Amino acid sequence: MTSTFQKDVATEGQAAETAKSLRILYFVRAAFSISWVILVALLAKTSFGIACTLLIIYPAWDVVGTFLDIRSQRGSISKMPQYINAAISAITTVAVGLALQKGVPEALIVFGVWAILTGLIQLILGLRRRKLLGGQWPMIISGGQSIIGGTSFILLAHDPTMGITSLAGYAAFGAFYYLLAAFRLGKSAN
């Protein structure tokens, strides 16, 4: 009985530490996304080079954010979804750079595929973490919305009104969901 109690206390302690780490990470990821949206809004229409750089930076930042997520996770839960996410985002960073050489529509298609795949992983992680940490509904919704957003980027990529600035709304929603999840994790972190 004592060992079961000690294991439960240890698990609760690990969950609280994970929640604290994820909460900080979610605030950092929200701040990055907000900064990215502002830079896109201010600079993307005036400088194609800056717009392209910002488009490449977004999935590259996801690689960094994913490794920070892996580091924040305590316990024995499999980290395989995060490693897959990091690999997808690293490949996407290179693929967006290559696609931009052909044109913005091609880069938007690559970005859309990335949004679908990483949205699916975020959805899965949110569902898994919901039981342990709580406060994951924003991440679950965000994952689903990313899948829908990615699909629309692919379908509308050749629309002349679609450009790199059209991704700002996607990033803004991501920032909103990270902030919401960070606040919701406050309960689990204490």
Task: Please describe the structure with a list of short key phrases separated by commas or semicolons.
mainly alpha, 6 helices, elongated, 190 residues
Strand and helix layout:
Elements: H1 2-43, H2 48-72, H3 80-100, H4 104-133, H5 137-156, H6 168-189
Helix pairs in contact: 1-2, 1-6, 2-3, 3-4, 4-5, 5-6
Protein described:
- With 190 residues, the chain is an all-alpha fold.
- It has one domain.
- 84% of the residues lie in helices and 0% in strands.
- It is built from six helices and no strands.
- The longest helix has 42 residues.
Domain tally: 1
Structural shape? elongated
Put simply, the count of helices is 6
Beta-strand proportion: under 5%
Number of separate strands: 0
Residue-averaged pLDDT: 86
Q: Could you say which structural class the secondary elements and strand pairing correspond to?
A: mainly alpha
C-alpha Rg (nearest Å): 18 Å
What kind of sheet is the major sheet? none
> Would you identify the regions where 5 or more consecutive residues have pLDDT less than 50?
1-10
State the separation between the terminal residues, measured CA to CA. Answer: 26 Å
Q: SSE order in H/E notation? A: HHHHHH
Helix percentage range: over 70%
Short description:
The chain is an all-alpha fold and 190 residues long. It is built from 6 helices and no strands. Helix 1 (2-43) runs antiparallel to helix 6, helix 2 (48-72) packs antiparallel against helix 3 and helix 5 (137-156) packs antiparallel against helix 6 (168-189).
